[in-house]
Amino acid sequence: MNDYYKTCPFPKPVDRKKKKKTNGYKDKPKRICYYCRSYGAERHEVYGGPNRQISIDNGFQVDLCANCHRELTENITPRAQERNKFWKQHYQKLYEDKLFDAGVTPKQARDMWMSLIGRNYLDE
After folding, report:
1. Are 67 and 96 in contact (CB under 8 A)?
2. Torsion (CA) 70, 57, 48, 105 in degrees, nearest 10
3. Under a CB-based contact definition with an 8 Å cutoff, are residues 39 and 27 in contact?
4. Rounded to the nearest 5 degrees, what angle is found at the Cα of 102, between the Cα atoms of 98 and 107?
5. What pLDDT, on a 0 to 100 scale, did the predictor assign at position 69?
6. Which residues, 6 or more positions from 68, have their beta carbon under 8 angstroms from its beta carbon?
7. Is the pTM of this model over 0.90?
8. Buried b or exposed e, range 55-93, using 16+ CB within 10 angstroms
9. Are 72 and 55 in contact (CB under 8 A)?
């Protein structure tokens, strides 16, 4: 911030709102759907809602075509529910395994996961 605004009688307000991250579309034409292998895949954040930004930060994402993405987002069909469960368990296991390799105990790794996402998907 410029020094002028520190001494000004009406200081410039500081923008406190955090800018949300996005997946970007620069390489979208080159992305391939994990399931049907078609080009132009979208990034699906495995943990949505309040954990969407955490998914982007940690790479908990899978490339899906528009149809597969819609199916997993709606989560209505048994196939979609099975696929969502697979990805949630997959990324939790990867996260905890990375912590094990760094020397963290299993209990500490699980506690760190719970503080990050708030739900355990491996014991379902």
Report:
1. no
2. 120
3. no
4. 75
5. 95
6. 33, 34, 35, 36
7. no
8. bbebebbbbbbeebbebbeeeeeeebeebbeebbbebbe
9. no
